[in-house]
Amino acid sequence: MVVDASGGLLEGRTVVVTGAGSGIGAATAAAALAATTPLPRFAAPAEIAAQIVHMLSWRSGFITGADLRIDGGHGIA
User: Fold this and answer.
1) Would you say the C-alpha torsion 61, 62, 64, 69 has a positive or negative sign?
2) pTM of the entire predicted model
3) Which one, of 26, 36, 28, lies nearest residue 2 by Cα?
4) How many helices (H) and strands (E) does the chain have?
5) What span, in angstroms and rounded, lies between the C-alpha atoms of 72 and 77?
6) Which of 19, 39, 43, 70 would disulfide-bridge 47, Cβ 3.0–4.6 Å?
7) Which domain holds residue 23?
């Protein structure tokens, strides 16, 4: 989730951005962080949950020893 400096929830997303000590607001920090990914937004909680459910289901039975990055392409940017 993205939170502002007072701990208030912003947009119900999955990344915590406080901007503590940086002199910039949480919305500015969140926008800057989101802009660094190929999909310029944060994941919705349902997107993360869907991947967890998939990995816990029988459909992932042949997946072994793999890392599943749910990062909007941030790891390749």
Assistant:
1) negative
2) 0.56
3) 26
4) 2, 2
5) 10
6) 43
7) 2-76
| Other CB atoms within 10 Å distance of the CB of residue 36 | 11
Q: What is the residue whose two structure tokens read 């944060």?
A: 42
Tokens representing 62?
Answer: 């042949």
Run of H or E including 48:
helix 45-56
Q: Which residues contact 72 (CB under 8 A, 6 or more apart)?
A: 37, 38, 39, 41, 42, 43
Q: Report how far residue 37's alpha carbon sits from residue 14's, in angstroms, rounded to the nearest whole number.
A: 14
Tally of structural domains, the chain: 1
DSSP code at position 24: S
- Cα(19)–Cα(23) distance, rounded to whole angstroms? 7
